Amino acid sequence: MTSKLTDQLRALPDDGLGALLQLRPDLVVPIPSDISALAARAQSRVSVARTLDGLDLFTLEVLDGLRLVRGEDGTAAIETLLTLATEAGAEPSRVRGAVDRLRARFLAFGQDNALHLVNAIDELTSPYPAGLGRPAADLDVDVAALAADPAGLRRTLLSAPPDARAVLDRLAAGPPVGSVQSGLLRGKTDAASPVGWLVAHRLLVAIADDTVELPREIGIVLRRDTGPLGPLHPAPPPADAQPRTGADSAGAGQALEAVRHLDALLHALADAPAPVLRSFGLGVRDLRRLARDTGTTEPVTALLLEIAYAAGLLTYTDATKGASEMVWLPTPAYDAWRTADLAHRWAVLARTWLAMTRAPAMVGQRDDKDKPISALSHEGTRVSAPTVRRAALGVLTDLPEGTALSADAVLDRLAWQAPRRIGRPGAPAGPQALARAALAEATSLGVTGLEAMTRYGRLLLAESAGGADSDPLGIRSRDDETPDALVAALHDMLPVPVDHVLVQADLTVVVPGPPAPDLAAELTLVADAESRGGATVYRVTPASVRRALDAGYAASDIHGLFRRRSRTPLPQALEYLVNDVARRHGGLRVGTVGAYLRSDDEALVNEVFADRRLAGLSLRRLAPTVLATPHTTSRLLDMLRDAGFAPVAEDATGAALLTRPRALRAPSRPALRRPRPDNFDPPRLHGPRLEGVVEQIRLGDRLARATRRSPLSRAMVDEDGAPVTSAQAHAQALAVLQQAMRDQARVWVGYVDAHGSAASKLVRPVSMGAGYLRAEDDRTEMLHTFALHRITSATLDD
Amino acid sequence: MTHGPLIVQSDKTLLLEVDHPDALACRMAIAPFAELERSPEHVHTYRLTPLGLWNARAAGHDAESVVDSLLRFSRYPVPHALLVDVAETMDRYGRLQLANDPAHGLVLRALDRAVLIEVAKSKKLADMLGAKIDEDTIAVHASERGRLKQALLKLGWPAEDLAGYVDGEAHAISLHEDGWHLRTYQRQAVEHFWAGGSGVVVLPCGAGKTLVGAAAMAQVGATTLILVTNTVAGRQWKRELIARTSLTDAEIGEYSGERKEIRPVTIATYQIMTTRRGGVYTHLDLFGARDWGLVIYDEVHLLPAPIFRFTADLQARRRLGLTATLVREDGREGDVFSLIGPKRYDAPWKDIESQGWIAPADCIEVRVTLTDAERMAYATSEPEERYRVAATARTKLPVVQKLVERHHGDQILVIGAYLDQLHVLSEFLDAPIVQGATTNRERERLFDAFRSGEVSTLVISKVGNFSIDLPEAAVAIQVSGTFGSRQEEAQRLGRVLRPKSDGRQAHFYTVVSRDTIDTEYAAHRQRFLAEQGYAYTIVDADDVLGPPLPSID
């Protein structure tokens, strides 16, 4: 087999080989050493699987057909397949086209009448080609007999009860195996159940206790209408594509929203940075807050944040002052981004989105460990996301301009284009879910509008599709592309920023369009934004005017701002509001002083104020009768007294603080010794106390004697009186211990305790084993355990 | 990108630039589905609400026409999300219908089976729905018609009520159009109401809501129950009905605290209907006392909550709500929608004014500077007393007097909230006072005297806020209010907005104390008036007290 393919490949001209490599680029990673290595790789499971994944539904159906018509020798004849396919309603040219596709990829090779299929295909595809079961001969002799008798088979089929017939039809449509309730098929089958009836009548074969299979021949008979191959799908499902006007406009409106929302989001984050979760990412509560503050939904917020992060507009840092934790904050790139024009800003978003490997749709879903995935977390990455995104949008791009296709129809098409990759509605994070999410995201960003691809959306997809080839080394940077077609196309559709406002008597200020950045900055200070969108409505409130005044505006500046920007005469109410607030602004002053000086006698205060000796106090007059100084109260008092005044300090409530001079004293402490009793006689002892003392002395004496006799206090010598090595001593000690154990004698055990210090104990050894000595202390009646390696000596108690 | 007059905002407000050449066409296009929220001088704000969109849907507009209007007049691209939202919201109305089934009576029928399954699962509806008749139909207990509509609205699936109305006891009523006739907008209002079966007509004070009610009664031609805010308003209704229709005194009954008459046309007060004795509403029988063919609710925005509950049981009768504003301080606009009916007619104030039916008003805020003693009293007063201290400052008296003098010859109302102040004013101006304690008889007498010009200045308390028809009042001077309520402002302005026989200018003065909480409340009122499109001028009391200004008239 391999050699056959090798021969085929070897016989190919260079451009033929090139074409194969172009179709299966994975074959050259790494570059195979020779043709036989290439052939081996072309037949490897991984490479074949990858190639199959890229095939459309019809090509796979044709491949199934080829597998079905394979003869004994393992080759298939195209003619046979064509007959079957024509029966199923597929045009021969299309079938040949599909076979050519298989051949071009060398999944099939050889002559038309003896087409070989690569072995790995059988391992990678369903064991039931075209959804048909195995031939009856392989399954059961009796069934084979029935299958061989067409008239008998037809009779049996016609006599099947309706529900049994329904089972048959379902199995005939494929796959041909079905499971039934476990144990139903064991032993005597219940002929009353549909499956039981079918098995009893040899239309189904029980291949396991709970599994039945429809033999191939019977399946073919049942597929009378479509032929053995079953229904084929030579073309993608017909789409109910509808012409849509205004797609571009709806998309542009949405694009505007996306840019505005992202701006608002990052602004909100800068105002109140959200902490980075310990497991990375942004907490769900913060996400909810941001969504609420900016008036979007949580999914859109997650999408925009992910894009901002991918685009480098947002990052995590611990740079905020005083915060020990990491927070999410906009980067300086954000400041550059927000000054760009709208189309440019959107282009940054859209390009980032198209290429990013993040899957924002997964935010809020649960990961493998059933933990919710948070925005910006590591779990939100899907390497396949850009591919799927491009595939989904590609379906819309392939339609004529201004044609809409619902998300379901797009998914149907995708499922036809690459059924093995996107076919099944799988896991929440599966390709189909990703494709659906990609369409929803495209809608939120305004890449599509009213379910149709926008004109500028096409440019977006085209530029990145061609980009890789034309600039493989990335030499040209984006800025050099002189006319940015995408930006230009979108720019024409977006409103021009306005630099004027309409001021109304209800104190609203309307910016009738996207505000120019400088106008927005000015208005944000003096008014509160109330409604955003195509225009922005600000409201001037006393609080907002105060804010402007606090920021250093004077009333005349605010008037000037409105006069300069307004296209309409200013309402009187606005003038009054600003003047009213300005009049009261600063009416109260707050400051910090170190100490104050007050007096009811204004002349006295003047005297202090004028006194040059007190210049060092930097006194400031707060009122005719009040002076303040940044210095402390005590310094003020001292200096005033030095200057000959007679000030009195007062506390926070205004009560005079009297300062009587006080002798310095340390804190009190108890005396060292109890005072001696008057008489100098020695203390007398009586009765029980005396007896106690005696007993204590005796006990101490016994202990002292015992310790004195402890062998450790003596030099270690052997029988000859020579000093012994520690190893010798240890062996000696063990011998002594064994002896003592037999005699149940008491032993002085010398050992090194856990702290490394030598100690000894008088004990009666009980047992020795597993590296431990267990011994009893007669005095305390406690059982001690000594590690043998710690024992340094043992001496029998004499 | 067009250069239309409309800007669509993300929060579903629509900004209409009124000076734009297409503004009028745009206003006509969006008025059916967007609610006018503010109409200051340059940019009007409309809001897209589910209720508004459903109102439009009920009136036969479809989502496509709404989206088309938005796109046609929008200056900037309209976001995809908003267009989709509008279409989806509108699509929710009428997916469910309340209908009369010949065999099963009242049924809830679904045009979309999934919706029916969804709402049938709701616990809130469990008690209201009966047996399932088929896949798309569920029987409804007839008594639950109103509550079901309320609950469905809350679930976001408002039902279309096609179950029809009972005709009620026939009673011929016709309009006496001698020397006057229905104005165009009044006629349109009645036509829209009749076409819809029941609903709310929104007309500003003084635009002749009573006449709309009378014309509706003539159209229905059946016994009618009229619910009004108070007895005086009820008597006005009666007077108006006798004057403008074929009804006679004997045909109109008054059902109030004083009298309990039930006649073919009965006028009852909200108060008597909501009176409870021992926890039981004692006057509920009135609703069943006759086979009413029409129930008219005056001042729907003030409809007390219990009346909503009673109305839920009256769903088979035609209902007409009359009001100057749908905005309710308690936010129960949805209940008005489901229980009384969708809005059937609405005309912005300014439009009616430009048609000449309402006197153009000149709103002036006069700021008085408190004397030092008053400032000190204000500064040291308790928080809950501050407004009273500021609003009742004596400094206001000479200003009010001066204003009254300046408008000598005009019919002047002096309005306030604090009785002490009003009594002082009454003495100071030598004008009679109408307050809560004034008997109905005395009120009637004074109002009559005012109407006839016998009394030129009237001091009135909060009782004057609602439903007193004093069309000759050309000047209103407000000295204190109830904490700047928007509704109160609308009512007070309504006092002087009645058409004047000689087309004179109306004046609306508010006297406030500078640098006090009074000014803050005044700012709320001012905002409301500015939002209604009335330019508001602030003048200093010294200008009023000083040399006479050149006449504004």
Describe the structure.
The complex is a heterodimer of chains A (798) and B (553). Chain A has 33 helices and 27 strands. Chain A is α+β, with helices and mostly antiparallel strands and 798 residues long. In chain B, a hairpin with a 3-residue loop joins strand 5 and strand 6. Chain B is globular and about 80 Å long. Chain B has four domains: 87 residues, no CATH class; 66 residues, no CATH class; 170 residues, P-loop containing nucleotide triphosphate hydrolases (Rossmann fold, 3-Layer(aba) Sandwich); 187 residues, Rossmann fold. At the A-B interface, helix 15, strand 12 and helix 29 of A face strand 2, helix 4, helix 21 and strand 25 of B.
Radius of gyration of chain A: 47 Å
Largest sheet of chain A: 5 strands, antiparallel
Q: Please identify the structural class of chain A as seen in this structure.
A: alpha+beta
Return the CATH class of the largest domain in chain B.
Answer: Alpha Beta
Uncertain regions of chain A: pLDDT < 50 for 5+ in a row? 467-476
Overall strand count of chain B: 25
Q: If helices are DSSP runs of H or I spanning 4 or more residues, what is the number of helices of chain A?
A: 33
Shape of chain B: globular
Q: Oligomerization state of this entry?
A: heterodimer
The most extensive interface, with participating residues per chain, is:
A-B, 45 and 37 residues
CATH fold group of the largest domain in chain B? Rossmann fold
Based on the coordinates given, report the CATH architecture of the largest domain in chain B: 3-Layer(aba) Sandwich
Percentage of residues in helical conformation of chain B: 25-40%
Q: Identify the strand order in the major beta sheet of chain A.
A: 26-25-24-23-27
